[in-house]
């Protein structure tokens, strides 16, 4: 089976053509600078082929067409015709309260994604453009929407309600939603498999990448997560502030005389470890800076580990215990020192890291000692594979 996985952003579109059973990636790539000029970056992993093509992409429709063309290209293609593609799976950011699982895309589904635009104003319109461009390029091909929010819809009200006047929830659906749900689902499911699929389990997933989020997963169901109405909440991230006192927004707006949109833009794009380090959002740069004696980089790393550790503590309380702590995504999978520092706060819970086992990057591994009370794992995430599997399942 061949599933095309699409992740459409406002000016970019990532794609992977893959086998949902084996996980083999036949081709993958990125269309970037959509609506600016346009560039296609394409790779065929099995043949080690790479191709970059500059071409006009005024809209997502031209981007998808470029993807279709290169997938059947004589040199860089991997299928004879797009008929060989069984279905298309789309990553969709915000499913609001309507979507608790992935679903086949029809008119009603598209309308529901449209209805969620006020909740995901930056991403949902782009996701819809990707869906509609695929409809145009491959009419009749089954399409599935996989929502970043869906896995978190099992949270109880005490976790998802904000302590603000009820009408904002009742009239406007303002609440905690959480994101990276596909990753949290993939990784927590794998953790439960490793644990032997016990009936009862308490797992915390630390998805630490450029964007970072935490989740508490009890018996396979999410009970709390750190991102909120938007991905701005939770731990500090590459460029996002994470949790912040709302009065900070008021203070900055007054001081700078800027609009609320400009202030939020600053909190999304110029904050987090980038702000604390005075310029570095990439964790490899932060580590290099720290090693060269840069105190700002050191502070950014200390703050990040401290806040992640605090979330682990609070989610352990939320679940009244913890069996398994999992690190995933770019920093979680590769940041050896970051993992060790986070876990150093958690010794009171009986967490013990084995330094040798922790010396691992990008592959599944147990990194705790045999006598650690909580098992600690690195489990690489694979959101595309989860999207492909959901798509295959729904299109059977
Ligand atoms: P995104 O949220 O964009 O999907 P990723 O999950 O790809 O992000 O994570 C990107 C982050 O992972 C970057 O900050 C990068 O520095 C970090 N990272 C990648 N490799 C390493 C490494 N070897 N050591 C520390 N951090 C790493």
Describe it.
A hairpin with a 3-residue loop joins strand 9 and strand 10 (212-218). The chain is of the alpha/beta class and 396 residues long. It folds into two domains: 3-147, Nucleotidyltransferase, domain 5 (2-Layer Sandwich); 196-378, ATPase, nucleotide binding domain (Nucleotidyltransferase, domain 5), CATH 3.30.420.40. Helices cover 37% and strands 19% of the residues. The strands form two sheets. An eight-stranded mixed beta sheet has the order 5-4-3-2-1-6-8-7, sandwiched between helices. Strands 11-10-9-12-14-13 form a six-stranded mixed beta sheet, with helices on both faces. Adenosine-5'-diphosphate binds next to helix 10 and helix 12.
């Amino acid at each position: 089976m061949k599933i095309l996985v699409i992740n459409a952003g406002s000016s970019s579109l990532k794609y992977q053509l893959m086998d949902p059973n084996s996980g083999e990636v036949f081709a993958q790539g990125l269309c970037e600078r959509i609506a600016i000029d346009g560039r296609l970056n394409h790779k065929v992993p099995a043949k080690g082929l790479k191709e970059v093509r500059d071409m006009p992409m005024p809209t997502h429709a031209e981007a998808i067409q470029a993807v279709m063309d290169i997938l059947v290209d004589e040199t860089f293609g991997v299928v004879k015709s797009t008929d060989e593609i069984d279905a298309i799976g789309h990553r969709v950011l915000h499913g609001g309260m309507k979507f608790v699982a992935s679903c086949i895309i029809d008119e009603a589904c598209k309308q529901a994604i449209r209805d969620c635009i006020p909740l995901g104003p930056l991403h949902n319109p782009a996701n819809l453009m990707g869906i509609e461009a695929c409809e145009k390029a491959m009419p009749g091909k089954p399409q599935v929407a996989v929502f970043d929010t869906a896995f978190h819809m099992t949270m109880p009200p005490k976790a998802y309600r904000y302590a603000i006047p009820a009408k904002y929830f009742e009239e406007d659906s303002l609440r905690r939603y959480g994101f990276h749900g596909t990753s949290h689902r993939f990784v927590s499911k794998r953790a439960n498999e490793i644990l032997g699929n016990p009936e009862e389990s308490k797992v915390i997933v630390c998805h630490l990448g450029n964007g970072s989020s935490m989740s508490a997963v009890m018996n396979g169901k999410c009970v709390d997560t750190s991102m909120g109405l938007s991905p701005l909440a939770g731990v500090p991230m590459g460029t996002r502030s994470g949790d912040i006192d709302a009065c900070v927004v008021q203070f900055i707006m007054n001081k700078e005389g800027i609009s609320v949109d400009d202030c939020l833009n600053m909190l999304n794009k110029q904050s987090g470890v980038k702000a604390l380090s005075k310029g570095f959002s990439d964790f490899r740069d932060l580590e290099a800076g720290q090693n060269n004696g840069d105190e700002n980089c050191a502070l950014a790393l200390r703050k990040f580990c401290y806040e992640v550790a605090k979330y682990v503590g609070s989610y352990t309380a939320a679940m009244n215990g913890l069996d398994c702590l999992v690190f995933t995504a770019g920093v979680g999978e590769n940041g050896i020192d970051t993992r060790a520092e986070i876990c150093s706060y958690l010794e009171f819970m009986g967490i013990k890291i084995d330094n040798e086992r922790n010396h691992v990057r990008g592959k599944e591994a147990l990194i705790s000692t045999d006598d650690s009370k909580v098992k600690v794992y690195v489990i690489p995430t694979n959101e595309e594979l989860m999207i492909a599997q959901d798509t295959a399942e729904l299109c059977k």
